[in-house]
Amino acid sequence: MTLGELLTSVGVGHLVALPGSRSARALPPGATRPRLVPAPDETCARLLATAAAELGDGLGAYWDGTVLTLLSSGARPAAAHAGRDLPEHPGHPGHPGHPGHPESAVPVPVSTPAEFLRAVESARLAGAGELRLRPHPDFLLSSPAPEGEPHREGGPRPPGDQAAGDHRGPAGDRPARAAAPAPSWPPPADGTGLPAVPAERAGDLAELIGQLAARDAAPLTPARAAVDLAETLPADGVIIAASGQAGPWFGHPAAPARGEARVLRSGGGPVAVAGALLAGREGRPAVAVVDEPPVGPAATLLHLASALDVDLLVEVWGRRGGLRSAADHRERLRAALRGRGVRVIEVPVDFTATKLLVDVLAHQADPRD
Predict the structure, then answer these.
(1) Is residue 217 located within the same domain as residue 292?
(2) Which of 31, 183, 262, 365 has the fewest CB atoms within 10 Å, i.e. the most exposed one?
(3) How much is the pTM?
(4) 210 with 288, same domain?
(5) Average of pLDDT values for 125-147?
């Protein structure tokens, strides 16, 4: 059993590889999961792994050739030690400073499937958002995990159950839903990342979106810009909206007629760009919606997308942009989605209407109603 097979068994859909990591050794011949994604530096690697975890792969992972870092968007770091006393001595395995503790900056050495699975289970129990492992250089792993070890179903292995080396990876072709997260790590929330809207408030929300979307002049309302995207998106496309001003306008308020919209819970614009790169690398028309121009690591990710021949579109919602109307916006969108390579569209958007959306969503949660 290779490291790649073991990663797949715990819900890793993408393995981000840093330069010189020789990551192909971790994957079995002909493997389609986890998908290898190169990254030029550790900052971009973390962004890509965070996007993979945020968008539903269960765990994000990046590998520098020596240390494997696993990230989970569903962890609860603040509650990691709630209700129990911590050992005071850092030499104790339960102390956060101990090399074997999942929250330690010191990588945990692993050389067998059992050690790998024990480390993941430890991270789950501690509520850790990050786990750093140092796999043995000869991590070929043909031996099964012993009975009683944690495994993919999240509990002890009963006698005679399938060996760890026999697990098959989760199937799927789409980046946002490709690999079902293993319950042995806190999985991310399902769906768009937005709370459900009760039926009694759906009418109020639809009325607000309809009123705002009827305004055609620039700067566009967020509802108009979101509806333009939702109506233009191809059937297999995906919109990835950054947390912030743009995010609340996708999902329930302006769900796409085709394709899907995902709203990040954290990470901002660079993670949205990283998510669009992952989706585009799998052949899906991908749109990242952000409220700041892509600079720094986000710009580096766009250069990486170009180098990998990935098609993706970034929409920057803000004060800049030469669009005069919603019709101009839709025309630019259609042209960009038909084109190849990396495209960036600046869309003038007036976010003052966000307060109206927040009021509707807050009202639906008011227990006095």
Answers:
(1) yes
(2) 365
(3) 0.76
(4) yes
(5) 70
